[in-house]
Structure formats: C-alpha cells, structure tokens
Design a protein that fits this description.
With 186 residues, the protein is mainly α. The protein is 83% helix and 0% strand. It folds into two domains: 1-123, no CATH class; 124-186. The protein has helices at 2-16, 20-40, 48-63, 69-87, 94-116, 125-155, 157-185. The protein starts with a helix and ends with a helix.
C-alpha cells in the first residue's frame, strides 16, 4: 500500500511541476500528427472508430517522443497516403504530397525537441524559435529542390526522369558523406 501511495504522490508532484513550454511542444506534436493524418487519409476513412484510433495514435508520440511512437505515426501517415491513392483512387497532387512531407518532418523534429525537454524544464522561447526556424529552412530548401527536380524531369521526358533520379541519388550520397564528415570532425 505504501508503494502505491508513493507512486501517486510522485505522479501528483510531477504533474504540479509541468512547465508550459514542453507542454506546448508536445501539444504541437499532437496537432501536427493529426493534421498529417487528415491530409494523408481519404475523407471517407476519417469517421467513427478510425478517427478515434487516429486521435489516440497522434497522442502517443506527444506522450512518448523517445519511444517507437514517432516512427509508428509516420508509418500510419504513409499508410493513409497509400490507402488514399491506391485504395480510393485519389490523384497524387503535388501540394498535398509536399504538405504531408512537411508535416511528417515537423512532427519528427518536434519529437526530437520534446525528447530533449523534461516536463519541468524552464525553456527560453528563443530555443524553440531557433529550432523551428532551422526546421523551416530545411523544409524550404527541400521543397524548392524537390519542385526544381520535378520541373527538370518533366522537361526531359523519359531521359529527364532518369537524369533526375541520378541527380537525386547523388544528392543523397553527398548528404550521407557530409553527415559522415561532420561526425568524424567532432
């Protein structure tokens, strides 16, 4: 009985110490993941039990950002996209694809931030602002590069698609080499 009382007291103390910034980051995770589901899944599937399941699934990475839940929710989002395009015949629209990719990245990066912030952390608002500005720069660069590569691929016909594929692989290898160099530099 003392162990249960001790755990209840510890939980009450932990709840009393929660600060607003980590709570807002975790709330942002929930909203972003849920918005990703809304864009990825077909509208016909967002009713009843499915909506309850997706809401609970969106809450999981907000509660446990260090666990498997961010990966799980990303896979559910991709599964919803595949269900919408293959199962319901929704055409692939570039704006929707970019929006889902943006929401996946924002959910991922906010989970990384939330994993670093304890619930009772006192956080300077500039930290969160700089984190989100860096994420925005990454998203803007990726969107511009992606749209440019798509346009180049359309201009060249079938040969253009091969050229864009090779260029994309070169960018991926270059990024991996850069990350490897940055890790060795430490």
């Amino acid at each position: 009985m003392d162990a249960v009382t001790g755990r209840v007291t510890a939980a009450q103390n932990a709840l009393a110490r929660i600060s607003p910034a980590p709570l807002m980051v975790r709330g942002g995770i929930f909203v972003i993941v849920l918005a990703g589901y809304a864009l990825a899944f077909p509208a016909e599937a967002l009713v009843g039990r499915t909506l309850v399941f997706l809401s609970v699934a969106a809450l999981l990475p907000a509660l446990g950002p260090r666990r498997i839940w961010p990966t799980f929710t990303a896979l559910v989002t991709v599964g919803g996209w595949l269900l919408a395009t293959d199962g319901y015949g929704r055409p692939v629209a570039l704006w929707r694809l970019l929006a889902v990719a943006v929401l996946l990245y924002l959910g991922h990066t906010l989970c990384a931030l939330a994993a670093l912030l304890p619930y009772d952390a006192v956080v300077d608002p500039d930290l969160i602002t700089r984190w989100l500005l860096r994420a925005a720069a990454v998203l803007l660069g990726a969107a511009v590069l992606g749209v440019l590569l798509l346009q180049v691929g359309r201009l060249g016909g079938a040969a253009g698609h091969q050229w864009v594929t090779v260029l994309g692989l070169m960018v991926a290898v270059g990024t991996a080499a850069l990350l490897g160099w940055l890790l060795r530099r430490r």
